[in-house]
Amino acid sequence: MNQIGLVAQSPLDQFEIVPLIPMNIGNFYFSFTNPSLFMLLTLGFFLLLIHFVTKKGGGNLVPNAWQSLVELLYDFVLNLVKEQIGGLSGNVKQMFFPCILVTFLFLLFCNLQGMIPYSFTVTSHFLITLALSFSIFIGITIVGFQRHGLHFFSFLLPAGVPLPLAPFLVLLELISYCFRALSLGIRLFANMMAGHSLVKILSGFAWTMLCMNEIFYFIGALGPLFIVLALTGLELGVAILQAYVFTILICIYLNDAINLH
């Protein structure tokens, strides 16, 4: 019964933020939490990967497996930037490429790290994804102002709109534009949280059935167990897909700011 009670915990327990190193500075409370730890682990893994690729056999005529992986990710994001962002020369596009590449790799590694048992899915917390999406949204808006000045506001009012409808359309377009930052964070958070919760619920149910001594319950657990395995594979695909979707939306929004679409 202890084993059954152990897996009967809420599926939301895996998203609990736990202070690891509490810190108080005056009236402000800071703490080093498990999301902070796993974000540092993600960053550390990324830096180690780049270090070994560039220092250990980097530039070889026949690349090793790790070098091939990094080159594949590099070329993938580079082609994405070239295809999705128009109206700029190749050299100017290179200015945005490092930021987009780092964002993609950070999200990809965070999502995949969350698939490891007893780890923590950083991107399953709304405040983290919202902070990331809002910072990118502000940066894209600054790029639009740098390129167009006050003419950047012209995207709020398409040409040929009747004058009586102009105030309503401007308000609608402004809300739609600002909602991009919110939707970008919500999409990533909701997909990661929902997928992990579903896997937890079904795996807990299957384990509870397997812990029963009766053969009927054991046979009945095989169905949910196979579903859990299938969902785990699906969730792995979702982890990769969400990093791609987040990145391609950044490129689309950046293209809109540059070309006033």
What does this structure look like?
There is one protein chain. The protein is mainly alpha-helical and 261 residues long. The protein has one domain (39-56, 65-259). It has 7 helices and 2 strands, in the order αββαααααα. The protein has helices at 2-7, 34-55, 65-84, 90-113, 126-148, 166-211, 215-259; strands spanning 19-25, 28-33. It is globular.
Query: How do the strands of the widest beta sheet line up side by side?
Result: 1-2
First and last CA, distance: 60 Å
Q: From the alpha-carbon coordinates, what is the Rg to the nearest angstrom?
A: 23 Å
H/E series, N to C?
A: HEEHHHHHH
Shape: globular
Uncertain regions spanning at least 5 consecutive residues: 1-8
Summed up:
With 261 residues, the chain is mainly alpha-helical. It contains 7 helices and 2 strands; from the N terminus they run αββαααααα. The longest helix is centred in the last third of the chain and has 46 residues, at 166-211.
Q: Any descriptors?
A:
two-stranded antiparallel ribbon; 7 helices; 2 strands; 71% helix; 5% strand; disordered N terminus
What's the layout of helices and strands?
Layout: H1 2-7, E1 19-25, E2 28-33, H2 34-55, H3 65-84, H4 90-113, H5 126-148, H6 166-211, H7 215-259
Antiparallel strand pairs: 1-2
